Amino acid sequence: MKYSYLYLMKYPVLNLIITVFLFWLTIQIGKSSEEYLSYFFILTIGIMHGSNDISLIRVLRTNSSPNSNYLSLYIVLIIFNIVAFFILPFLALISFVFVSCYHFGEQHYHHLIKKRTINSMLFFLSYGALIFGLLFYNNFTATSAIINELTNVAIEQKYYLYFLLLGIGATIITTILNRKNFTSDFNYFQELFLILLFTLLFQLASLLWAFAIYFVVWHSLPSLIDQIKVLYGNSSKINLINYIRSSFVYWLISILGLVILYFSTQYFAINFITLFFAFLAAITVPHVIVMYFLNKN
Asked: What is the pLDDT of residues 253-279, one digit of tens each?
């Protein structure tokens, strides 16, 4: 209990300090530096946090080793998502955003919810929609360019505003519905301050850099700590090393896949950043399913 309390106290404070530092850094560096840092953080911490899903499946099944059928299914899901972006790109993109909204909200708040209910799940989805709404609306030009290249669909700025307003309204409503389901650690003023900070940050940062900051600092790092605690009992330095060792092969496979995509950009006549987000979408959906059942249990 003592360790859990310290974790809950240090986690948002540390993340806030990192975010403020990166906010300052955003003002100091140029767009090209933001891009390099974004790829570095996403390819290391970002990809690493989703590279141990097979071990997590083993924990969920409470067996000594993951069944090959689960590994096969996991790989099939990744391939299916990749193919979906070529066959039904717009539908695949909408599905990815929908799933990611829930996943971001769940990771941010699952430890502040007493009991998982329909209302709490709607709250997770709403908060994620708010974050993506802020991200898309404040970077609508870059967002539209990627969506148009992926799906050949042009989306006007007003639709990003509608999506943002939907996220804001839904978050307010679901917050009220869950007011008795929040733990005592839930701080309304802190959460409001974070949203205002994200708003300002997303306005100043490029799309990739803004996404990287939230994805790595507020999603990947907390998720990685949660996974280490589930797999090894606590998030000590030794267990962090064990986590990296056990996930290294899967992480390396992901990086090699991305390298192949990078050299395929000329063949597909498409910008690398577009394929990069498609790649993230392909590996995200199976990870979201694993983390859903992990948090549920």
From this structure: 878 877 887 777 667 667 777 777 777
Q: Is 113 helix (H, G, I), strand (E, B) or coil?
A: strand
Q: Is the pLDDT assigned to residue 246 strictly greater than 70?
A: yes
Domain ranges of the chain: 2-28+42-296
What is the DSSP code string of 156-204?
A: -HHHHHHHHHHHHHHHHHHHHHTTTTB-TT--HHHHHHHHHHHHHHHHH
CA 175 to chain centre: 21
State phi, psi for 171 to the nearest 5 degrees.
-65, -40
pTM of the model: 0.83
Give the separation between CA 268 and CA 258, rounded to whole angstroms.
Answer: 14
The Cβ-side half-sphere exposure at 241, using a 13 Å CA radius, reads: 3
Q: Which strand (E) or helix (H) includes residue 98?
A: helix 89-109
